[in-house]
Structure of Carrier domain-containing protein:
Amino acid sequence: MDRCRYQPLIAKELELPGCAIYNSQPATPPRTLIDILDETVKTHRQHLAIDNGQTSLTYRQLQEEIVSRAATLRAAGVGKGDYVGIRMTSGTVDLYVSILAVLTAGAAYVPVDVDDPDERANTVWTEAGVCVVLTDGPRLTPHHPLARSNESKSERPTTDDTAWIIFTSGSTGKPKGVAVTHGSAAAFVDAEAQLFLPERPIAPGDRVLAGLSVAFDASCEEMWLAWRNGACLVPAPRSLVKAGTDLGAFLIRQSISIVSTVPTLAAMWPSEALQRVRLLILGGEACPTELVGRLASKACTVWNTYGPTEATVVSCAAPLVAGQLVRIGLPLAGWQLAVIGPNGEPVAWGETGELVIAGAGLARYLDIEKDKTKFAPLRSLDWPRACRTGDLVRADPEGLVFIGRDDEQVKLGGRRIELGEIDAALMMLPGVSAAASAIRRSETGTPLLIGYIVRDAAASDTDRQFLRDHLPTALVPFLINLKQLPLRTSGKVDRAALPWPPPSDGEEPAFKGSTGWLAEQWRKVLGAPIQENTNFFDIGGTSLAAAQLVSLLRQRCPGFSVVDIYQHPTLFEMAHRVDQLTSTQQRMRIVKPQPTWTGYVQFGILLAFLTFESFRWFIVMGLFKASATSFMGPLPWAERLVIPHWILLICWMIFVTMPGRVLTTAAVGRIPMAGVRPGNYPRGGWVHLRLWAAERFVTLNGINAIIGTQWCRRYARLLGCRVDQTAQIHALPPVTGLASYGTSCVVEPDADLAGWWLDGDILRVGTVDISIGARVSARAVLLPGTVVEPFAEVQPGVCVEGTITGDGVDFNEKHIAESDGTGSMLRYTLTLLLIDVLPAISAIPAVALCTYVLWDTEAVENLVVATLILAIPVTMMSIVSYAALLTGLIRFAARYMAPGIYSSHGVHAWAAWLTHRLMSDARNGLFAFYASLLTPTWLRLLGARIGRDVEASTIVAPPSLLHADNGSFLADDVLLAPFELRGDTLVLGVSSIGKRSFVGNSGIVGLDHFTPDGSLVGVLGSAPVPSQIRTGSSWLGRPAMSIPRRLDELPDPRLAFDPPLRLKIARGAVESMRIIPWVISALLIASLVGLMLTVLDYCGLTIAIVAGGVLLFTAGVVACLLATAAKWVLMPNVGAGHQHPLWSSFVWCNELALTFVESLALPWMLRLLYGTPLLNMWLRTMGAEIGNGVWCETHRFPEAELVSLGDGVSVNRQCVLADSSIPRPVNATGPSDIEGRSHTRPGCYSLTRNYSWIGLNYRSSVLGYAR
């Protein structure tokens, strides 16, 4: 259906211009809900249709499930004209698939809340005449004999067929069934599609909360807001929805952008819970004026809706604007409204009367007599059928204003109830002579259902249990005893005169301390008398009231949760729990510096590791000599390098090849880790040294390529981890062996599962448990002791600890992955061997050239001169060859990298793994290509769509899925279009960066996400879903929070965008010098080979191997000192508080100095120095102030002279102390100080602007982003 803007029509165009009659545009052309779904499936087959956090289905998969279940229903005899009862667990995908299957089969669904009593369920299904009932499983149970007819059960429903039957509360105590046809339902769905967000309609990428019971007609709005527009429905368990404040975290975690709810629930969410929501629809009850001011914002459009079940969910709506009158608005397209006075005639504008509804949305009662009464003709307007709502409204031409009700029907929590139904249940209590119910409000505004009874005996637990057996949980009232009920002159109960607050039957005790404070909060929420042993739920406490209470208690006790109320429901127990939580205080402890002797032991271990590396060098040299001799005859050098070929081959297989390195790494790693258990150990002690040595050996052996392959599972088992054969592990397991990977769990690339961190001078070691079906997303950090429960999900880039819970969805609903086959194992193993020899293959032309030139060179002087002359061409040949090989392989893999959903065991998953691996290798091996004029060309060669004047640094992205528009900026370590693994499926999608958009350091732009023109995603931030981000907006953190944009005026815009040619030439000249670190590395290799062979000639193989370790250490020291020298030559004066345009020599020279560190110092030495005094010494040479006893696990100090680390500081792995930031096209610098006794957690990112950490645990709820 085409979308058009909806403009309601009002009285000016009618025959009765002075009367309160509201007409609207005509309804859309008639169709069914199945027609709507089919159109959406056809248009959006690959987009997500439903996702509850554990199970997700695209529209194509959803349709397949629907067709399968509909066929099962038809086989059971269910079809057109039948009614099917549904009673399934909330929050499950099965529930919604079953609803759609019933509709597709041509039947109507009759929902009952799973929490409702069995008696009510049977009453509903008997009244409706359902033939079968669908329950969890899904299980199909006959309820009433199927009526056999000659009509085909395979027919599609028509617009006149019933779609659903919702039961509302009845005034006689008996629920009333309301049947809505497909035609009315589709008209409602299409009308809302016209009404909401006409400028940026709901679309794929939007995520719609499904938090309401399907027995509540507003749930239909949730479902079809998603399925009409190609968005994704996100079911939430009812237990979570009832938690109130805790649902806010769910909205953020699930990136919810569309919400339909009741005002009572929305009022309990913290404002940050709605930061990603762009459409909030309120309905079901009157909306308080004060709530509008808090909810309405520029980023979120808020609508107030109104409509009885008898008129298909919503009949009219109005936008809510802070400071303006709250209206229920004007009619939807196809609906007609009138305000009628007591005489049955329309009232004049501005007057009050009963709201009457007609038009496309009219439903019908199953009870024919009630239908005749409720939908009697309105003769004054010649409406053949009209719904009399019983609601009083004021006829305002700009939109109806709700006044109240003129009968005994009320709404509680969005659920319409008849007080007569409650009265009838109260009269069934033993000994009750009279009863009445009413809605009252507490001091906090919480609506409370109160039941007043007249009898001698006080209310007891038995009475409350009786009511729970006969009423839905939400309709069980708080009981108050009265001597008599107040009556009107007519003899009817005067509900308005029922006492509130309730009369006290005795003297209430005077509570003191925290008990007294807690009792006062109870009074604010419940307004009832309180004793020490009073149970919160026995005096009117509901889930909504519990959420209100939590909001109050968290002002004094932030750790208090809804769970605490259920676990400690009495006043005394709850007060004790509050005391427990508030008495916990963080204590400052004295942090001891790292012991001096630790550094000497580390130095010895480093020499041993480098000696082992020297041994591998001799193996490679021996193989090269043997191969060259076979092709070219005896060589004039390395005459004493004589090792039998079979020994060389065995050593090569064990110590050089990837499978061999995996085995040796695991074997050596198990030795120091033997006996290490979860616990706390001294920093720099023996356990810490053993852990450090094991991790450095892993770094030395370079086995990162195995992540994501079957070899990674085998390596984890060798370390001692418990690993299921279906686990998909794309991050190295902890060397401690203290991890378990459950069936079908997923760990995505770059996740940190090390299982340890430094808390000051304490090493905390713990287990990491990833349960069945759990998912750890890319770049997440799991601290020791973390347990990811079954089917739970850790979001990308966040740091978590403790227990990560799922959303309570049934295990039977999950898609369990299968283990890899032999073919897959062979494919990955051969690819690993290829990746391992790529650098050697790329070096063949260079080695051949050197061999040819130096073959007959005997004089040492001539050999040195020739080596120096060949250094640059040989380096260039190797670089070009390596880049060409990478380009060819990545281009080949791109053939299998089209956006879509695939098996995680097929060729597409292999291509995604290979591309990620090669792009990571390119970022390390070809570091000089990045953050340069060459970067856009390099990315285009790899297959990316890159616009003009794009600035890209060390990004990680599948090139074929990256689109970057003109002038966009991608900072260091940005992750773009990362593939997602969910069970046995792989999801691929495109990331698009808009014109002059900025993505900060370590930012993430997920698949199918884009950043519009001029937008900004800050450091360590994630791009929000496409439906939320707007042109020119700024976002920070994980989950993304919208922040105000501050635009600084640039001295010369050309220095940021569109620079003159002279600046491009100057920059190119500076960047051409990035080849120098590679040339130096080539010379170091040549020098080491020559020196090792010289020692071999004079001293023999054993001494040469030992000397080789010393020579490798010396080469590493030289590389580090050259990086230091380059820094001081290029960047002698870095001042705090300065700003520099991107097109300035400061930025170019800074990047050149960084190239010396990353391409020279890091591969030769720095990667092995983490946590040692040697790293601290080098950082001091770079200008950093490093105190005594510092343990530092990172070298990433971009402007080291602006960093100060106090005595005893611990800086954990993957941290960046970044003193330069680029929040705009300007580079800014500022000091970062970490004073004594402080520490950072893994993955933190320190920014500029004089932030000083003193004795603190520097940690963020969003990975690293805190100050």
Observations:
- The first strand starts at residue 21 and ends at 22.
- The first helix runs from residue 33 to 43.
